[in-house]
Amino acid sequence: MNRKIMLAAVSMILVSGPGLPAKSVKTVIEGQVIDAKTKTPLHSANVMISHTTIGTSTDQNGRYRLLNIAPGKIHVQASMIGYKGAHQIVFLRPKRQITVDFELEPTILEMGAVVVTGTATPHLLEDMPVRTEVIPRKLIEYKQATNLAEALGFHTGIRVENTCQNCNASQVRILGMDGIYSQILIDGDPVMSSLAGVYGLEHFPEEMVDQIEIVKGGGSSLYGAGAVAGVINLITRRPMTNQVRIKYSGQSMKEKSDYHVGAVAETVNKTGSSGAYVFGSFRRRNPYDRNQDGFSELGALNHESMGFKWYNQFTENKELLASFHHIHEERRGGNKFDLPCHEAEIAEWIEHWRSGGTIRWEHRPTALLDYHIHYSFALEDRNSYYGGLDSPSPEDRLKALSYYGRTKNQLHIAGFQANYQLSNQLWTCGMQVTRDEIKDETAAETAYHLNEIYSNTGFFLQDNLHWGSHKKIEFVLGARMDQHSTLRDWIVSPRIHAKWNAGKGTTFRLAYTTGFKPPQTYDEDLHLCGIQGDQRIIRNAQNLREEKSTTYSAGYEFQEYLKGIPTMLSFTAFRTRLSDSFTEQFMSKESGIEKWERVNSDGATAQGVELDLGIRPFPGIELRGGLTYIHGRYDSPHEDFQTRRFLRTPDWSGNIQFIVAPSHRIHFFLAGDSFGETDVPHEILVPEQETPRLILERGNPFFQIDLGIIYRVPVNSSFNMEINMGIKNITDAFQEDLDQGPDRDPAYVYGPVQPRTFYLGLKTSI
Question: Which domains does the chain have, with CATH numbers?
């Protein structure tokens, strides 16, 4: 194999390797990136200098050009999703222009991606010193995902679950831990508040997503509060070309329709120094009643969204970027959808208006130093109804009216980050200031209203250093200090990552990471609907301490060609220790409202292993599979169920993905997801007993399969059309022991989110 074809590239600017002089001298590197087999140019391939923060992307002809580079010995990389990276070592002389061309060979789909989440600086996925997993745009399209929640499906160690039969609130589990322990980022900013995270996984449409990056284990050393079990970073698309895309997708669940329409337009100027991206979408879903008891398992859903992203490079080393999105969603579950909420036996109705955006200034004063300043915001406005009508009496009607609520949540984040190249080290430092305002009111007694402001200031420092040829040994050492308004003392979150590139595609990793979660208002603390439509209000106990996590992990990875077959294998063992973990205890019940209090408990431990395998035995055929074992235990038995097991967390889970593309026109996608038995809390009514009884059920194992076909219709070079069709959950794997009627426990729900669903879609691009 040509020595050029070795490793590849990552993102957006260009800096120097060891030994470069401090003073920048203007030089030029240019060239072309092509497919090694077909010799066709590769558009939007990444070209960068290894172990720095700078690079660029190729144009329509596969060409790139890098300016203002400090002279010296340089490791130049090129990469693209689905291709094996390549690198070349060149020596730059002052005021000279050299040509560096690359030929990339196909490999496993995720390989060749440029990721930033693990270190807040760009790296090729294969070279990232912090283990990072990626869901690329192409895989999202294969899944026919309509939002972020669906895009996360069929991924090793990640499980998205429905937590309520009525409102269909969802959460994502990492390392077997509840969704509140995962931090959701948008382009690296934690603009998903604890309140927004309840329904936020379904708020963000697929038109907004370019790729998803996942880092498991504590991430508070970079991202602050909330990054306990891991981080999920939604990367929005950067404008790359001139095109318009329109997509329609229609789904049917036993004659109940669910359809999604989206459009995207993007443009860039001839030099690539300025570009814009605009998207819009809407979705409609009819309520779905699985057991024909008159109460929905999947509620009615109306969703609209729009947004844009724009950038402009004023000079070759200065850029201004702005983005904005606006989302409106209305969902309702229960029964009697033709009547107002307060006239139904059970109704959970939530209407969201969300606006969010970012403005970012990036500047590279020298070849060794770059920085960016940014401000992000998220404004959440929510109307809600949680409850039900016990009887048509005037007293019960008045009680039902009191279940309406209004919530406003404003989140503001301002930050600064600087990166400095010093010999074989890349230093990163910065600060972040967060202000989270939440105001919640119901028509019920004012004693349950909430009006809080939470603030946090964090400072972080990180050193990414390496030794040996092409980063044979690499460390990431970092720490962050946070001062949260609910706590008196500063919180220190350190981390250490070590990577050894043993050669021939073999890599070993070790990591120690930490995370914390402060005592503030979380997710559905507001107006939880319980059995018989009763409301639950959760408040924090006085002197509540923060939760802290410590994760140790060790891993082995192999990414190389075995007898000409691209192969990927990874094995990771982990252990997460959670101390002072939060739990809720019942306090009192008045007028149909249960009051619960959040307190600290002893702690918990989650440990296990993950195995991933991927091969591409023939051109156009790819097989991926993963297996996860998690042993999650509380230090003390749960007071309601007398078990130390993690609830709703199966010990075993697995997934498989099979892609067959016999030609560039037709693609087949088969995916399977399985998980074992799990303990699920169940609240039931007992005759002649005033309070419901809590029992622990053993949920059944499930195995679901999705099958899809994509056919590209030959039209012409400037107009493309795709037809996609398939079946989601062919086996119709769905919970069989669903509660029925108005007295059902809406939280007693587990297993696959969607029943057997047929879909047909059309996508055009110009």
Answer: 1-113 (2.60.40.1120), 230-765 (2.40.170.20)
